[in-house]
Amino acid sequence: MEKTIIAGPCSVEGREQLREVTEALAAMPSVTMIRAGVWKPRTRPGAFEGLGEPALRWMQELAEEYGVKYCCEVARPEHVSLCRQYGISTVWLGARTTGNPFMVEELCQSLKGSGMAVLVKNPTSPDARLWIGAIERLQAAGIADIKAVHRGFAMYNNRGYRNAPLWEVALELRRELPEVPILCDPSHIGGHRELVVPLAMEARQLDYDGLMVEVHPHPDSALTDSAQQMTPDGLSQLLDAYLAPTAPSDSNADPRLTPLRQQIDDVDHEILSLLARRMELSRSIATIKHDRGMAVYQPKRWESVITNRLQLATSLGLDTEFVKEMLEKIHAESVRVQLKL
Ligand code: PEP
Ligand code: MN
Fold it and tell me: Which domain holds residue 336?
């Protein structure tokens, strides 16, 4: 399927800046639409908050002149009516809006019957239900053209990203709403332009339906999100890699895949059988604990188990964060099984 590529500046900063970036992007046939923020949700007061209506006027003029389409963020019903007034037919809900059902509902009312297309960024918190809920509200309001945009999640420890990718949350959305295409916004995930290309390539591996990328003619002097915006030339290189044809994914494509997949099936079988055995042992232990009037949860034992397993994980070359999360899940299930006895 054809990839959707949305690119453009974080914010409209002036007529000339918009013209310069539009001219460059209009010359790239794979760019579907130009993004440009008009009202900016800033974390702290006093920062550049977008140019509002004059920016929409320039967008309307330049859309005509260059034969391009623009989209911008809306957070209030007035934004929606202004967009309609200036011929913007695609809008997006920002991360701070998606997470607020009251705001989403208000926007649904103003979008109803408009025929507008809507992009829905993930909420700032890693909550797939909230993201899915916003999309369901728009669907219920009769919006036919909806796409999700994965822009990462605000976490206390983002492990070097501006917003942790947590790809699994986006995969959950895809499982629940397979009909909704999903784009990756590597700019807001990475927060630094060097991270944009590797993140976009990860999204390609996960078969996303396209990208939303921040592109500015002079990123270093951008008024918002300067560190993560790339030049039009940078985008052009990114798209060469991102849009290169991929090999078909069926298992007949390469005969080496079949035996390896067979081995994976066998390993999964073993893992599950071992888990069943582990739970059986938990049940036997629970009977003894019960007889002796001991508590099910023994913090000292758990501490020594986890320390020992993490050492083992390191020596086996496994990611300790991953192993810790997995063991915590297994332990929680073991406690649940013991309490049921
Ligand atoms: C943006 O796209 O510039 C923006 C503010 O996005 P988000 O809502 O993802 O933070
Ligand atoms: Mn931005």
Answer: 257-340
Owner of token pair 């929409």: 56
Predicted TM-score (pTM) of this structure:
0.82
How far is Cα 56 from Cα 247, in angstroms, rounded to an integer? 41
Q: Which two tokens stand for residue 181?
A: 């295409």
Site of tokens 């206390």: 156
Q: Quickly tell me which residue has 């890699």 as its tokens.
A: 241
Report pLDDT digits (tens) over 69-113. Answer: 999 999 999 999 999 999 999 999 999 999 999 999 999 999 999
Nearest CA, atom 9, ligand 1: 95
Total domains in the fold of the chain: 2
3-state helix, strand, coil split of the chain in percent (to 5) is 55, 10, 35
Element (H, E) at 288: helix 257-292
The answer, yes or no, to whether any atom of ligand 1 lies below 6 A from the CB of 10, is yes
CA–CA dist 40, 46 (Å, integer): 12
Q: Are residues 208 and 284 in the same domain?
A: no
Cβ(41) – ligand 1 distance below 6 Å: yes
Segment 325-336, tens digit of pLDDT: 999 999 999 988
Is residue 50 in contact with ligand 1, taking CB distance under 6 Å? no
Proximal ligand: closest to the CA of 215: 2
Same domain, 165 and 56: yes
Angle at 88 between CA 60 and CA 90, to 5 degrees: 145
238 and 281 in a common domain: no
